[in-house]
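Quiz preparation item.
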């Protein structure tokens, strides 16, 4: 699996911003079939940083309704990546 297939997008929310500032943790949406080792390698190769730990969570898609038709958004996987204290990801700076 290619590194760019593993990391889908960064999650930029108020909570992830606090994690970034206080604990040097960054949050990404990742491929559902990616494991912690693949996520670590992808982050280290793409952003040229040292990853200390990776935590993953399977997020259940929200239920949605339009009129009488109901459905569900797809399930997705979230990764919380803790970096070495001296490393930063410049993509998130100013966000």
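Solution:
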């Amino acid at each position: 699996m290619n590194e760019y297939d593993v990391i889908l997008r960064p999650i930029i929310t108020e909570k992830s911003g606090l994690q970034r500032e206080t604990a040097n943790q960054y949050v990404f949406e990742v491929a559902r079939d990616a494991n912690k080792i693949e996520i670590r390698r992808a982050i280290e190769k793409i952003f040229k940083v040292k990853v200390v730990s990776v935590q993953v969570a399977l997020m259940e898609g929200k239920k949605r309704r339009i009129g009488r038709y109901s459905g569900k958004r797809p399930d997705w996987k979230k990764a919380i990546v803790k970096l070495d204290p001296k490393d930063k990801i410049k993509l998130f700076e100013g966000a």
